Each structure stands twice: as structure tokens, then as C-alpha cells.
Here is the input.
Amino acid sequence: MEFEVMPEFVFQPPPPVTLPVTDGRLFPVRRVFCVGRNYEAHTREMGGDPSREPPFFFTKPADALVLPGQDTPYPSETTSLHHEIELVVAIGSGGASIQPSGALSHVFGYAVGIDLTRRDMQAEAKALRRPWDLSKGFDASAPIGMIAPASAIGHPASGRIALSVNGELRQEGDLADQIWPVPDIIATLSRFVALAPGDLIFTGTPKGVNAVAKGQVLEGEISGVGTLRTRVV
Ligand code: MN
Here is the structure.
């Protein structure tokens, strides 16, 4: 039997993006999905209709994550960088066309995340019917905290979600006010893509989104899940 020589890489592949888990392990990240509008009050503040239309999704690259303890560099090409505090679902086992009734068994854990948005560029994209990729999926657009395993914290369906900037409360809501709860989000998303271990899902933000400036400190908290802190530099 002959063995072929493994071809050389043109350059060293980057190491996998990994998130710390509160139990000391590492969670290897595969993809990052985000839900568009999932709280009534935020849908209204963005000029939308909070009727229960199916959730819609966009994505960010896995290497857009800002890991716990890291600063967030202020991005280029915007003068309106907005914060959106969100519950993040970490998928532990994959599947397609998952039923809502079994969806939570696919969840490894949860984290606090911020969906940073170039709001000016996004508004232009909406007006011109262009994609959101570069208004949502830019470098360092997704600060995130440690992952808390569901085996330790359960599956939070209610609880305070809040974000402050330099100690001043900006966003506050309750997970119970999500238009689409986590099982429905997983069920809907898995009809369009086969979910895989390592996928993250940002589940939408409550009202109060606003701009942040260089030098400001963002602090997020979700009751029963965890915290997040990053400085914009
Ligand atoms: Mn968002």
C-alpha cells in the first residue's frame, strides 16, 4: 500500500477560534448566525412591525468575535457604531429541520454577546436594497463573554438582559420578551442550514440601541447567564 505525501499548506492555517467555557474547557467556534429583530420594542425603534413574522438571519465570520478580556477596536468606515446586547446560543450538537420540541437538546450553553453594527452603513444598505454583510460582519463586530454550559445554568427563557456604557444604563429588557424564543429560532434556522457543533446564534437585542465612542467601556449582563466587558479603543 502506498501513502501519498500530504501536500504542504501555502501558508499556516489560522488556529480555530475558541471561546472559554466557565468549566475551564474551550468551545471551538464554527459559524456565527444572528437573528434580525426579536424584541417588540427594538423592532419598533428600528421602524419595523413587531408582528410575529418568521425570524430572519444574517451572519458574521467566526473571527469577528472579540474574546473575553479583549478590547474592541473602533471600526473604519462608520461614524455610528451601535451596540446591541444579545443572548448567544452555543450549539453543541448539529442537525437539520430540528423540531422546536427537541431544539434545546442541541444547545451546549449560553453567553452574553454584543452585535456591533455600522448603523449608518446598514441604513444605506437597507435604502439601496444591498446586503448587510459589511455593516454587520466586520472585524471585531462581535464581542462575547464566556460560555456557561446549559448543564450548569439550564436553559434561560426569562431574566434581565442589560447593557451599560461607562456605567450608564443604555439597554434593558427581559429574555421573556423575545418574539421568538430559542427553540423556535433553532427550528427555523435549521430549516435553512444544517446546524453544526460550534455554531453560535445571536438571538436579537432589546430596545435602547445607540452609538458608542472610542474610549467607552461596554458592560453587558444577562441574569443567570453571565457578563461581558470590553473597551472600545
Ligand atoms: Mn442584533
Remarks:
- The pocket of manganese (II) ion is lined by residues 34, 84, 86, 115, 202, 204-205 (CB under 6 Å).
- The chain has one domain: 18-231.
- DSSP finds five helices and 17 strands in the chain.
- The chain has a mean pLDDT of 96.
